[in-house]
Design goal:
alpha/beta; Rossmann fold; eight-stranded mixed β-sheet; six-stranded parallel β-sheet
Amino acid sequence: MNILLINHEFPPFGGGAANAAANLAREFVKLGHKVLVMTAGARAGEEQQNGFKILRVSKRKRIDGAGFWEMFKFIFWSIWRKNSVVDFNSDMIIAFFGLPAGFIAWRFKKAFGAPYIVSLRGADVPGFMPVMYGKYHSLTLWLTKIVWKNAKAVVANSRGLMELAQKTAEKIGVKVGIIPNGVNVNFFWSAAEKEKMGKFKILFVGRLTSQKGADTLLRSIGELINRGFGDKIECEIVGDGPLCGELEALAKDLGIGSVVTFSGWLDRNKLPEEYRSADVFVLPSADEGMPNVILEAMASGLPVIATRISGNEELVKDGENGYLVPPKDASALADKIELLINNKNLSEELGKKSLELARKYSWEGVARRYLD
Protein backbone atom coordinates (compact mmCIF):
# COMPACT_ATOMS: atom_id res chain seq x y z
CA MET A 1 0.00 0.00 0.00
CA ASN A 2 0.86 3.68 -0.26
CA ILE A 3 0.59 5.05 3.27
CA LEU A 4 0.48 8.78 4.06
CA LEU A 5 1.42 9.83 7.61
CA ILE A 6 0.39 13.35 8.65
CA ASN A 7 1.82 14.93 11.79
CA HIS A 8 2.73 18.54 12.55
CA GLU A 9 5.77 17.20 14.42
CA PHE A 10 8.42 14.79 13.21
CA PRO A 11 12.02 14.29 14.41
CA PRO A 12 13.98 16.30 15.27
CA PHE A 13 10.87 18.34 16.12
CA GLY A 14 8.34 17.20 18.71
CA GLY A 15 8.01 14.50 21.34
CA GLY A 16 6.27 11.15 21.64
CA ALA A 17 3.97 11.47 18.62
CA ALA A 18 6.90 12.48 16.42
CA ASN A 19 8.84 9.45 17.63
CA ALA A 20 5.83 7.19 16.98
CA ALA A 21 5.40 8.50 13.43
CA ALA A 22 9.08 7.97 12.62
CA ASN A 23 9.10 4.42 13.96
CA LEU A 24 5.87 3.47 12.19
CA ALA A 25 7.13 4.89 8.90
CA ARG A 26 10.27 2.75 9.19
CA GLU A 27 8.28 -0.39 10.05
CA PHE A 28 5.79 0.11 7.22
CA VAL A 29 8.70 0.30 4.76
CA LYS A 30 10.23 -2.88 6.23
CA LEU A 31 6.86 -4.60 5.74
CA GLY A 32 6.92 -3.70 2.03
CA HIS A 33 4.79 -0.56 1.89
CA LYS A 34 5.51 2.86 0.40
CA VAL A 35 5.41 5.78 2.85
CA LEU A 36 5.09 9.56 2.57
CA VAL A 37 5.30 11.73 5.70
CA MET A 38 3.71 15.20 5.62
CA THR A 39 5.02 17.38 8.43
CA ALA A 40 6.71 20.68 9.41
CA GLY A 41 10.36 21.50 10.04
CA ALA A 42 13.04 24.14 10.28
CA ARG A 43 12.46 24.85 6.59
CA ALA A 44 10.07 23.64 3.91
CA GLY A 45 11.43 20.98 1.59
CA GLU A 46 11.76 17.27 0.83
CA GLU A 47 14.10 14.64 2.22
CA GLN A 48 14.58 10.88 2.32
CA GLN A 49 15.00 8.79 5.47
CA ASN A 50 15.03 5.03 6.08
CA GLY A 51 13.42 4.32 2.72
CA PHE A 52 10.55 6.82 2.97
CA LYS A 53 9.97 10.39 1.79
CA ILE A 54 9.41 13.34 4.14
CA LEU A 55 7.57 16.38 2.82
CA ARG A 56 8.03 19.33 5.21
CA VAL A 57 5.36 21.75 4.04
CA SER A 58 5.80 24.54 6.60
CA LYS A 59 8.31 25.99 9.04
CA ARG A 60 8.36 26.00 12.84
CA LYS A 61 10.84 27.44 15.31
CA ARG A 62 10.81 25.40 18.51
CA ILE A 63 11.71 21.74 18.81
CA ASP A 64 9.52 21.21 21.88
CA GLY A 65 6.21 22.57 20.58
CA ALA A 66 4.28 24.44 17.89
CA GLY A 67 2.22 27.58 18.41
CA PHE A 68 -1.30 28.20 17.12
CA TRP A 69 -0.07 30.20 14.11
CA GLU A 70 2.43 27.47 13.18
CA MET A 71 -0.33 24.84 13.31
CA PHE A 72 -2.56 27.04 11.14
CA LYS A 73 0.24 27.41 8.60
CA PHE A 74 0.76 23.64 8.65
CA ILE A 75 -2.91 23.09 7.78
CA PHE A 76 -2.83 25.74 5.03
CA TRP A 77 0.35 24.52 3.35
CA SER A 78 -0.61 20.84 3.67
CA ILE A 79 -3.85 21.46 1.80
CA TRP A 80 -2.01 23.70 -0.68
CA ARG A 81 0.36 20.79 -1.41
CA LYS A 82 -2.47 18.30 -1.92
CA ASN A 83 -1.26 17.62 -5.47
CA SER A 84 1.80 15.93 -3.97
CA VAL A 85 -0.57 13.63 -2.11
CA VAL A 86 -2.67 13.03 -5.22
CA ASP A 87 0.50 12.05 -7.09
CA PHE A 88 1.43 9.70 -4.24
CA ASN A 89 -1.96 7.96 -4.67
CA SER A 90 -2.54 7.17 -0.98
CA ASP A 91 -4.35 3.97 -0.05
CA MET A 92 -4.46 4.90 3.63
CA ILE A 93 -3.80 7.99 5.77
CA ILE A 94 -2.79 7.99 9.43
CA ALA A 95 -3.32 11.35 11.17
CA PHE A 96 -1.39 11.81 14.39
CA PHE A 97 -3.59 14.03 16.60
CA GLY A 98 -7.23 14.70 15.75
CA LEU A 99 -6.21 18.32 15.12
CA PRO A 100 -4.51 19.64 13.10
CA ALA A 101 -3.59 16.46 11.19
CA GLY A 102 -7.06 14.90 11.43
CA PHE A 103 -8.61 17.95 9.77
CA ILE A 104 -6.11 17.70 6.91
CA ALA A 105 -6.84 13.98 6.50
CA TRP A 106 -10.58 14.72 6.39
CA ARG A 107 -10.03 17.33 3.67
CA PHE A 108 -7.92 14.87 1.69
CA LYS A 109 -10.62 12.21 1.98
CA LYS A 110 -13.14 14.66 0.56
CA ALA A 111 -10.71 15.60 -2.23
CA PHE A 112 -9.61 12.17 -3.43
CA GLY A 113 -11.32 9.52 -1.31
CA ALA A 114 -8.45 8.01 0.72
CA PRO A 115 -9.66 6.61 4.07
CA TYR A 116 -7.94 7.81 7.21
CA ILE A 117 -7.22 6.68 10.77
CA VAL A 118 -7.05 9.21 13.61
CA SER A 119 -4.37 8.37 16.19
CA LEU A 120 -5.23 10.22 19.42
CA ARG A 121 -2.23 11.23 21.50
CA GLY A 122 -3.55 13.17 24.53
CA ALA A 123 -4.05 16.92 24.19
CA ASP A 124 -6.28 16.37 21.14
CA VAL A 125 -8.91 14.57 23.28
CA PRO A 126 -11.67 16.69 24.88
CA GLY A 127 -11.33 16.52 28.68
CA PHE A 128 -7.56 15.97 28.67
CA MET A 129 -5.97 18.44 31.13
CA PRO A 130 -9.04 20.72 31.14
CA VAL A 131 -7.33 23.58 32.97
CA MET A 132 -4.75 23.89 30.19
CA TYR A 133 -6.77 22.80 27.14
CA GLY A 134 -10.42 23.26 28.14
CA LYS A 135 -11.02 26.46 26.14
CA TYR A 136 -9.30 25.00 23.08
CA HIS A 137 -11.42 21.84 23.30
CA SER A 138 -14.64 23.88 23.62
CA LEU A 139 -13.83 25.96 20.54
CA THR A 140 -12.85 22.99 18.38
CA LEU A 141 -15.33 20.34 19.60
CA TRP A 142 -17.56 20.68 16.53
CA LEU A 143 -14.58 20.12 14.25
CA THR A 144 -13.27 17.22 16.34
CA LYS A 145 -16.62 15.46 15.96
CA ILE A 146 -16.57 15.91 12.17
CA VAL A 147 -13.03 14.52 11.93
CA TRP A 148 -13.79 11.50 14.14
CA LYS A 149 -17.16 10.81 12.48
CA ASN A 150 -15.62 10.55 9.01
CA ALA A 151 -12.57 8.49 10.00
CA LYS A 152 -12.19 4.86 9.03
CA ALA A 153 -11.05 4.29 12.62
CA VAL A 154 -10.24 6.32 15.73
CA VAL A 155 -7.63 4.86 18.08
CA ALA A 156 -5.99 5.99 21.32
CA ASN A 157 -2.56 4.95 22.59
CA SER A 158 -3.72 3.87 26.06
CA ARG A 159 -6.81 2.51 27.79
CA GLY A 160 -7.23 5.62 29.91
CA LEU A 161 -7.11 7.91 26.87
CA MET A 162 -9.53 5.62 25.03
CA GLU A 163 -12.03 5.81 27.88
CA LEU A 164 -11.77 9.61 27.95
CA ALA A 165 -12.19 9.88 24.17
CA GLN A 166 -15.16 7.52 24.22
CA LYS A 167 -17.16 10.08 26.24
CA THR A 168 -17.12 12.33 23.18
CA ALA A 169 -17.18 9.57 20.56
CA GLU A 170 -20.33 7.89 21.86
CA LYS A 171 -22.29 11.10 21.17
CA ILE A 172 -21.59 10.72 17.44
CA GLY A 173 -21.77 6.93 17.22
CA VAL A 174 -18.03 6.32 16.97
CA LYS A 175 -16.14 3.57 18.84
CA VAL A 176 -12.57 4.32 19.90
CA GLY A 177 -10.01 1.50 19.80
CA ILE A 178 -6.54 1.11 21.33
CA ILE A 179 -3.18 0.75 19.63
CA PRO A 180 -0.37 1.34 22.16
CA ASN A 181 2.99 2.95 21.59
CA GLY A 182 6.03 0.80 20.94
CA VAL A 183 9.74 0.86 21.70
CA ASN A 184 12.88 -0.35 19.94
CA VAL A 185 14.49 -2.40 22.72
CA ASN A 186 17.60 -3.09 20.63
CA PHE A 187 18.22 0.65 20.33
CA PHE A 188 18.06 1.32 24.07
CA TRP A 189 19.23 -1.87 25.74
CA SER A 190 22.86 -2.81 26.14
CA ALA A 191 23.77 -6.25 27.45
CA ALA A 192 27.01 -4.82 28.82
CA GLU A 193 26.85 -4.71 32.58
CA LYS A 194 26.70 -1.24 34.05
CA GLU A 195 29.69 -0.23 36.08
CA LYS A 196 27.97 2.39 38.17
CA MET A 197 30.26 4.58 40.14
CA GLY A 198 29.67 7.80 41.95
CA LYS A 199 26.31 9.33 42.75
CA PHE A 200 22.83 7.87 42.36
CA LYS A 201 21.48 9.44 39.15
CA ILE A 202 17.84 10.45 38.74
CA LEU A 203 16.75 11.07 35.14
CA PHE A 204 13.82 13.00 33.66
CA VAL A 205 13.16 13.25 29.91
CA GLY A 206 10.32 15.31 28.48
CA ARG A 207 8.81 18.65 27.59
CA LEU A 208 9.16 21.27 30.30
CA THR A 209 5.47 22.08 30.67
CA SER A 210 3.10 21.94 33.62
CA GLN A 211 1.76 18.63 32.29
CA LYS A 212 5.05 16.80 32.87
CA GLY A 213 5.49 17.82 36.52
CA ALA A 214 9.24 18.49 36.55
CA ASP A 215 8.62 21.00 39.37
CA THR A 216 7.45 18.13 41.60
CA LEU A 217 10.68 16.28 40.86
CA LEU A 218 12.75 19.33 41.82
CA ARG A 219 10.87 19.68 45.11
CA SER A 220 11.48 15.99 45.83
CA ILE A 221 15.21 16.55 45.22
CA GLY A 222 15.05 19.36 47.76
CA GLU A 223 13.50 16.98 50.28
CA LEU A 224 16.18 14.36 49.65
CA ILE A 225 18.89 16.94 50.28
CA ASN A 226 17.17 17.91 53.53
CA ARG A 227 17.22 14.21 54.48
CA GLY A 228 20.99 14.14 54.07
CA PHE A 229 21.36 12.72 50.56
CA GLY A 230 22.88 15.84 49.01
CA ASP A 231 26.29 14.24 48.43
CA LYS A 232 24.80 10.95 47.16
CA ILE A 233 22.49 12.04 44.35
CA GLU A 234 22.45 13.89 41.03
CA CYS A 235 19.51 14.73 38.79
CA GLU A 236 19.48 15.40 35.06
CA ILE A 237 16.59 17.13 33.28
CA VAL A 238 16.63 16.36 29.54
CA GLY A 239 14.21 18.47 27.53
CA ASP A 240 13.04 21.99 26.93
CA GLY A 241 9.84 23.98 26.94
CA PRO A 242 8.10 27.16 28.11
CA LEU A 243 8.82 26.47 31.80
CA CYS A 244 12.57 25.96 31.42
CA GLY A 245 13.52 29.34 32.90
CA GLU A 246 10.97 29.01 35.69
CA LEU A 247 12.26 25.55 36.62
CA GLU A 248 15.87 26.70 36.64
CA ALA A 249 14.84 29.53 38.97
CA LEU A 250 12.99 27.05 41.21
CA ALA A 251 16.10 24.85 41.43
CA LYS A 252 18.09 27.90 42.51
CA ASP A 253 15.48 28.92 45.09
CA LEU A 254 15.43 25.39 46.52
CA GLY A 255 19.22 25.40 46.80
CA ILE A 256 19.61 22.32 44.62
CA GLY A 257 21.42 23.93 41.68
CA SER A 258 24.60 21.97 42.35
CA VAL A 259 22.70 18.68 42.15
CA VAL A 260 20.44 19.35 39.12
CA THR A 261 21.60 19.65 35.49
CA PHE A 262 19.37 21.04 32.72
CA SER A 263 20.64 19.48 29.48
CA GLY A 264 18.05 20.78 27.01
CA TRP A 265 16.99 18.69 24.03
CA LEU A 266 19.49 16.03 23.03
CA ASP A 267 20.02 14.28 19.73
CA ARG A 268 17.99 11.08 19.78
CA ASN A 269 21.09 8.97 19.18
CA LYS A 270 22.47 10.24 22.51
CA LEU A 271 19.42 9.20 24.54
CA PRO A 272 20.40 5.52 25.06
CA GLU A 273 23.61 6.65 26.72
CA GLU A 274 21.64 9.01 28.99
CA TYR A 275 19.28 6.25 30.07
CA ARG A 276 22.14 3.83 30.69
CA SER A 277 23.93 6.37 32.87
CA ALA A 278 20.91 6.66 35.19
CA ASP A 279 19.81 4.64 38.22
CA VAL A 280 16.11 5.52 38.09
CA PHE A 281 13.76 7.24 35.65
CA VAL A 282 11.13 9.63 37.05
CA LEU A 283 8.05 11.03 35.27
CA PRO A 284 5.72 12.93 37.67
CA SER A 285 3.12 13.88 35.00
CA ALA A 286 -0.32 15.33 35.67
CA ASP A 287 -1.83 13.59 32.62
CA GLU A 288 -0.61 11.24 29.87
CA GLY A 289 -1.58 9.14 26.89
CA MET A 290 1.09 6.43 26.85
CA PRO A 291 4.53 7.99 27.48
CA ASN A 292 7.23 6.94 25.04
CA VAL A 293 9.88 8.00 27.56
CA ILE A 294 8.68 5.43 30.11
CA LEU A 295 8.88 2.71 27.46
CA GLU A 296 12.39 3.90 26.57
CA ALA A 297 13.46 3.84 30.23
CA MET A 298 12.01 0.35 30.61
CA ALA A 299 13.82 -0.82 27.46
CA SER A 300 17.01 0.54 29.03
CA GLY A 301 16.49 -1.67 32.08
CA LEU A 302 15.63 1.13 34.52
CA PRO A 303 13.20 1.13 37.42
CA VAL A 304 10.54 3.79 36.86
CA ILE A 305 8.79 6.05 39.35
CA ALA A 306 5.75 7.77 37.85
CA THR A 307 2.46 9.29 38.91
CA ARG A 308 -0.59 7.11 39.39
CA ILE A 309 -2.50 8.25 36.30
CA SER A 310 -3.86 6.53 33.20
CA GLY A 311 -1.16 5.70 30.68
CA ASN A 312 1.53 5.45 33.36
CA GLU A 313 -0.47 2.75 35.17
CA GLU A 314 -0.45 0.56 32.06
CA LEU A 315 3.36 0.54 31.95
CA VAL A 316 4.50 0.83 35.57
CA LYS A 317 3.40 -2.10 37.71
CA ASP A 318 3.65 -0.83 41.27
CA GLY A 319 6.29 -2.82 43.13
CA GLU A 320 7.22 -4.89 40.05
CA ASN A 321 9.16 -2.61 37.72
CA GLY A 322 8.87 0.62 39.68
CA TYR A 323 6.45 2.65 41.78
CA LEU A 324 3.41 4.84 41.30
CA VAL A 325 2.93 7.95 43.45
CA PRO A 326 0.16 10.57 43.66
CA PRO A 327 0.49 13.58 41.33
CA LYS A 328 2.14 16.69 42.82
CA ASP A 329 3.27 14.76 45.91
CA ALA A 330 6.97 15.57 46.25
CA SER A 331 7.29 13.78 49.60
CA ALA A 332 5.88 10.51 48.26
CA LEU A 333 8.21 10.76 45.26
CA ALA A 334 11.19 11.41 47.54
CA ASP A 335 10.25 8.37 49.64
CA LYS A 336 10.40 6.03 46.63
CA ILE A 337 13.66 7.49 45.36
CA GLU A 338 15.16 7.09 48.85
CA LEU A 339 13.98 3.47 48.90
CA LEU A 340 15.99 2.74 45.74
CA ILE A 341 19.04 4.71 46.89
CA ASN A 342 19.20 2.48 49.97
CA ASN A 343 18.52 -0.81 48.19
CA LYS A 344 20.65 -1.49 45.11
CA ASN A 345 19.43 -5.09 44.75
CA LEU A 346 15.79 -3.96 44.71
CA SER A 347 16.61 -1.35 42.07
CA GLU A 348 18.27 -3.97 39.87
CA GLU A 349 15.33 -6.37 40.17
CA LEU A 350 12.84 -3.66 39.24
CA GLY A 351 15.02 -2.76 36.25
CA LYS A 352 15.11 -6.36 35.01
CA LYS A 353 11.32 -6.52 35.18
CA SER A 354 11.10 -3.24 33.23
CA LEU A 355 13.15 -4.74 30.40
CA GLU A 356 11.01 -7.88 30.38
CA LEU A 357 7.81 -5.83 30.08
CA ALA A 358 9.27 -3.53 27.42
CA ARG A 359 9.94 -6.48 25.09
CA LYS A 360 6.15 -6.84 24.65
CA TYR A 361 5.90 -3.43 22.94
CA SER A 362 7.55 -3.75 19.51
CA TRP A 363 7.04 -1.12 16.81
CA GLU A 364 6.56 -3.89 14.25
CA GLY A 365 3.61 -5.17 16.26
CA VAL A 366 2.18 -1.65 16.48
CA ALA A 367 2.58 -1.16 12.72
CA ARG A 368 0.78 -4.43 11.96
CA ARG A 369 -2.15 -3.36 14.16
CA TYR A 370 -2.53 -0.14 12.17
CA LEU A 371 -2.44 -2.17 8.96
CA ASP A 372 -5.10 -4.53 10.31
